[in-house]
Each structure stands twice: as structure tokens, then as C-alpha cells.
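From the pipeline queue, job 12 of 40. The input is one protein chain; the requested action is below.

Action: predict structure.
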Amino acid sequence: MGFLDDLRKDLSFFGGFNLTIRHLTRPRVTFQYPEEKKPKQPRQHGRHVLNRYEDGMEKCIGCELCAGVCPAKCIYVRGLDNPPDHPVSPGERYGYTYEINYLRCINCMLCVEACPTEAITDSKMFEFSFTNRSDAIYTKTELVVDDEGMPQKMPWEDWREGDDVMTSGWMRATAPSGAAAYEGLPQWSGELGYGVRQGEGGQSDQRDDDVTGSKLLRDLLPGHLLSEDIDISNLGIEGRMARAKKQGEFNKVRLEQAKDRFTAKRAQWKVDKANRKAAK
């Protein structure tokens, strides 16, 4: 074994830095959660909502199919006959009692697929926690949308802009029976506050990504795809320069946000100091 072989063996540990060095010029994917959040996809499955028709009537007819199909047995529904003088839903019955126990819910969304009237759908909000067990049981009061068609927002839920958008856009988007002719065509009725939502398209040309807000993974995460799946313009030196420029713009935005937070904290500190001085 010669001198070069001995030297190569002694410095072999530098090979462990190979992966780190290759990722230095790739865009960072770390966000300062919860101040910063990544945009959510249109088909994001979050906390349920009970929808209304555009005239304000509730879509739930108290059929209990959602409770029957739930594998976790977290849904409890009881229906009653609609009062003739003041009907709650257009059908013969309405959901008098509706409860979801989120300590049991596994977010399988079979309830959404089973609902014949598209009454129960999903918001994009999935970040919520409870300080006691009773808060985890959502009743009809918390689940039914308000008079503007917006989901009820509990104090322990972290709602952000857009979490209520396209809550039913993913449902039945490729129905019936998966026929491609129906892909991207809405198969549901209008909702209070939103009207008829645009159907989320699949892999055909019948899709409107601008309306639905779809984000193609090939555009979002080129740094995490295989080389053969990356467009030629994103490879080599040009690709590295483009990613470095993108990362620089992202860092600039984060720096401005950090400055704004520091300025706000400094102003609040001055106010608190003045209040303490006045109290003395």
C-alpha cells in the first residue's frame, strides 16, 4: 500500500460531507413555524364543516350515513322531521344532533364520500389542540357554517387565510365511476357564500389550476426530484444559479419579516416601560 493510498484512507471521512456540499446551493425548505407556513394544497384534508345551500338551508338531512361508515365511530347523528312552518333543510328530515369526537377521528374522510347531499366536507385547517376533552367533541353549533358561509372558528384553532377555500373542491372531482369525461366538472350543488365551486382536475386537460390553486410538485420541489424528472433548464450551473437567486429572494423576505417583528417588539417594550414608570 503506497503513500497515496494511506492518505486517501486517512482522509476518507471527508466523503461524509459530499451530501452536505451538494445541498448547499439548493433552496431551503425550512419554515419558521408557526409564524411562517407553506401553502396548502386544494385537496388538503382538515377539520370538517357542515355546509348550507345558497338559500341558507342546511344540507344535512340526518340520514346518519356518515356515522355508519365511520371506522372510528367518532360521529354521532340523530335526525328529526322538519317542522312544516320553519324547515331547517329542504328534505323531510334534518340533522338535529351532530357531533364529531376529534379524539377518535382518523381523518379518513369516508364520511365526506358517504354523504349524499355534500353536507359534510373538509376545511384545510388541521392545526388545533384542546385543553380538555369536552372541547374535542364538536357539536352542530361549531360545525355548521355561519350566515356568510364561513366555518366557525374556535379559540384553540389556528386558522389562516385560505383555509376555508375549496373545502369541497376535491370531492367527486372524477366521478361518476372515475370516467375521464367528468374530470374537472363540479358534481355538487352550490354553497352559501361560495356558489358552485370549481372542480379539482386530475391528469387530463380539463383542469383550471388558477381557479383551484393547484401547485404542481415539479414546480415546487425541483431540488428533491430525481435528475431525470427535472427540466433541463434547472440542471447544471444555470440551475444552481437560479436556485441560489431564489434562495436569496426568500432570505430577503425573511429578513424584512424579522426586522418588522423586532420593530414591533421594541415599540411594545417602550410602551410597557412607560406604563411601569407611570404606575410608580
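Job complete. The beta strands are 48-50, 75-81, 93-101, 120-122, 137-138.
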